[in-house]
Design a protein that fits this description.
By secondary structure, this protein is mostly helical.
Length: 788
């Protein structure tokens, strides 16, 4: 079948056709670079230029007229299609009826299209076997609810199956830039242009599939792929492409128009199916502010079938939807009512109800209402009441449009683009979303978010905003949880696997949500995906370990700890924290002190100057039952002999004194520990005094070189000298309070729990100068709390 076999209808109407074929190499949108505007729609109405129309609701009528020009159809000449269509000129039996949107197809044209369709269907059956032998067929996307072993992401390395082809000798040359730089949009469009004009179906499918998995919002390329399949007479595959495209970007008016025109031709004999597709389009895309052409096409199709009652029902829905050209729809609705018998438009129930109201108002007997023939005046009265009933919806919709018009005018680029958006448009989207959320209509909120995510797909702020909104609803609306869960999972999947796959926050939120919903395996897969995308992300190890812990898989917890500790580098600050966590888990959860000590010992081999590791080693041995006295002393001695700084060693010496006083059996050991502590304390005091003296000398030298003629300068110098003298004469009086041990670097939150009696100490002079040990009332116990 030729490409122009279904290129008719509202999209190609001479009075209103606006074809947004998404961008090419230049604009990065994913389709033809040209934007064709033929009559009717002004640039300001399309949001593509400046507008002086104010709210524009009423002014739009003047710029957009459904005129007699709609009675003719413009036919595209594409690729193999060069035959012009001629209008039949024959008039319908109901020629006096008002038809707002008419697409004329003569009887000869219809017969010709039917013949072509039948021939093509026969060709489809013979061609499919060749297609299937060349490639497995069109891949279908994995459902959000499907359990998979691994999640695909746009970060994955591109590995084409077909790099060489007889029909495409330069295929590898076009694939190479894409493989090396998957974000090079120019390289992608060159590849697609190359495969599109050749006959290697398998290579073309692989190229389109790879591209559209990474850029699913490029609706123009979904159209191109579908046209390619149709051109190759692959009807079933063409429809698969349409379905994938409509699932990927359901708010694309142009893609829906392309698909519906396809259905009108290839399923012309099945009106029920075609009508179902129109209803499906209205449900999914009908709330889009720029969906006017979609509604028009549906109305046209029903008019062609002389089913004015269905046309009237479509208007009932349309008049309640804020769209760009609502005023025009209202005018056409009134024309439809004024120029047709109300009996052909209204349902039987409403018609009888209105007729009864008219008779009651005119005081006419209602005993035989059905047998009374209405006068022209009475018919006009029914028409008036019909319009009055719809006037309520029209007025409300006009108000909704007025409230939103300023936001809609601010949307200059409603489609996806790889180029950055202007700051003003980003701000406009955020303000629009906040306004719609405040209004509280969830269907409109969801529609606007989805519109926003098309234009702002590369900005994680908007994905995060939508996810937070849905999570809030999920927490509050218990009855709607299944539907909200499906929506939220879709948002996370699109964000993390396609559009903003380098943003770690969304992965963590997604994994946490899956765990809350009981999908622990999926939560683990998401963290696996995060590790692939951001292997150096610091919080990842803790998240994976704790997820396994909550699942009760202790062996996997230890395996994760070993893996991440082994891969940790000394200078990145993760080795010691992970080792401490692993040690605590082994000691507190698994009750395995040997394993706990093993983690600490291995960490000390790489970080012998980390005081927290010595603290943990002492604590593991201190918590044993019975108390491992020798092990505790050995841990403290090891810290004292290490290369820790003087202040840290002084604190460990003080702790050793307290420990021996409370648990030691040999007074000589206690005296030796006291002496060792006094030596360290005096040395620390001397070091501090020497440092203070050096600082004072430096300040005095600076004061000597500074100007002295200004009184303010003299006062400042005197003040500085006074403060310096005070500092220099300050002695080291810091008492090594055990309660302050929780203030060690990295030990925040380790609270004392064991209230051991204090020890006044022997009050050596050095000890007295250092505050003594009289205030050391207990051993601070590290409060681990619940493992995370």
């Amino acid at each position: 079948m030729e490409d122009n076999d279904y290129s008719f209808g509202a999209m190609e109407d001479s009075s209103s056709r606006v074809s947004y074929d998404q961008g090419s190499e230049e604009n990065g949108q994913g389709g033809d670079s040209s934007i064709v505007m033929e009559g009717g729609f002004s640039e300001s109405q399309l949001g593509g230029g400046d507008s002086n129309s104010g709210l524009g609701v009423i002014a739009a009528k003047a710029d957009f007229e459904w005129s007699a020009a709609r009675e003719t159809t413009e036919v595209k000449k594409e690729l193999n299609g060069n035959q012009d269509r001629e209008d039949s000129g024959e008039e319908d039996e109901s020629k006096n009826r008002k038809r707002p949107f008419i697409d004329e197809l003569g009887e000869e044209d219809s017969e010709s299209l039917t013949e072509k369709r039948v021939k093509t269907e026969v060709k489809d059956e013979t061609s499919m076997s060749n297609s299937e032998s060349a490639i497995e067929g069109i891949r279908e996307d994995v459902s959000d609810n499907e359990s998979t072993e691994a999640l695909w992401t746009a970060f994955d390395v591109i590995k084409p199956r077909i790099m060489k082809s007889e029909q495409l000798p330069d295929l590898e040359k076009f694939w190479r830039p894409v493989i090396e730089s998957p974000k090079d949009f120019q390289a992608w469009t060159s590849l697609l242009q190359y495969v599109d004009h050749e006959n290697d179906v398998a290579a073309a499918r692989e190229a389109y599939d790879s591209f559209l998995r990474r850029y699913p919002y490029c609706y123009g390329y979904w159209k191109k792929w579908a046209d390619y399949e149709k051109k190759k007479a692959m009807k079933k595959d063409c429809e698969k492409v349409f379905e994938r495209g409509l699932a990927a970007i359901p708010l694309s008016v142009d893609l829906w128009l392309h698909y519906l025109n396809y259905c009108r031709v290839h399923h012309a004999a099945n009106e029920t199916f075609v009508r179902e597709q129109f209803e499906r389009a209205m449900t999914v895309c009908g709330l889009e502010f720029r969906s006017d052409r979609l509604w028009e096409l549906y109305i046209n199709w029903e008019v062609e079938r002389d089913d004015l009652r269905r046309v009237f029902q479509i208007y009932d829905k349309l008049l309640a939807v804020p769209t760009q050209f609502h005023t025009t729809h209202w005018d056409n609705f009134q024309d439809l009512v004024n120029q047709n018998d109300p009996k052909e438009l209204l349902t039987l129930e409403e018609y009888e109800e209105l007729k009864l109201e008219i008779f009651t108002e005119r005081k006419i007997s209602t005993e035989a209402v059905a047998d009374i023939k209405l006068t022209e005046e009475e018919i006009q009265a029914i028409r008036k009441k019909t319009k009055e009933r719809r006037q309520v919806f029209h007025s409300k919709t006009e108000k909704d449009i007025t409230d939103r018009w300023a936001f809609e005018e601010g949307i200059k680029r409603p489609y996806f683009h790889v180029k950055p958006l202007e700051r003003g448009q980003l701000k406009n989207w955020k303000s629009y979303l906040e306004f719609e959320i405040e209004q509280g209509d969830q269907l409109r909120i969801d529609t606007l978010f989805e519109r926003c995510l098309i234009a702002c797909a590369l900005y994680d702020d908007y994905w995060l905003m939508y996810a937070q909104h849905l999570e809030s609803r999920w927490n509050d609306e218990l009855d709607n949880r299944p539907q909200i869960e499906k929506q939220l999972r879709s948002v996370y999947r699109r964000a993390c696997t396609v559009h903003v796959y380098d943003k770690t926050t969304l992965y963590l939120m997604w994994s946490n949500f899956e765990e809350k919903t009981g999908h622990l395996h999926r939560a683990g897969l998401i963290l696996d995906l995060l590790e692939k995308v951001a292997p150096k992300f610091d919080s990842l190890a803790v998240r994976r370990v704790n997820l396994a812990r909550r699942q009760g898989d202790h062996e996997r917890v230890i395996a994760y700890y070993r893996k991440y500790i082994e891969s940790a580098k000394k200078d990145n600050g993760t080795l010691a924290p992970l080792s401490l966590r692993a040690s605590r888990f082994a000691a507190k959860v698994m009750d395995d002190e040997e394993l706990a000590e093993e983690f600490v010992e291995k960490a000390l081999e790489k970080e012998p100057r980390n005081a927290r590791l010595y603290i943990q080693l002492f604590d593991v041995r201190f918590q044993k039952k019975p108390l491992d006295f020798e092990g505790c002393v050995q841990a403290l001695n090891r810290a004292l002999k290490s290369k820790l700084d003087l202040e840290q060693r002084c604190r460990f010496a003080h702790r050793k004194v307290e420990f021996l006083e409370d648990f030691g059996m040999n007074v000589d050991d206690i005296s030796a520990a006291q002496d060792e502590y006094q030596k360290l304390a005096l040395k620390l005091q001397n070091d501090r005094q020497a440092k203070a003296a050096a600082q004072m000398a430096q300040q005095q030298a600076s004061a000597t070189n500074a100007p002295t003629d200004a009184s303010a300068g003299d006062d400042a110098t005197k003040t500085s000298k006074t403060e310096t003298s005070a500092t220099a004469t300050t002695t080291y009086t810091g008492a090594y309070d055990g309660a302050n041990y929780q203030g060690f670097q990295g030990q925040a939150g380790y609270q004392g729990q064991y209230q051991y009696p204090g020890w006044g100490g022997y009050q050596y002079p050095a000890a007295a100068a250092a505050g003594g040990w009289g205030q050391q009332g207990y051993y601070p116990q590290q409060g681990y709390g619940q493992p995370q």
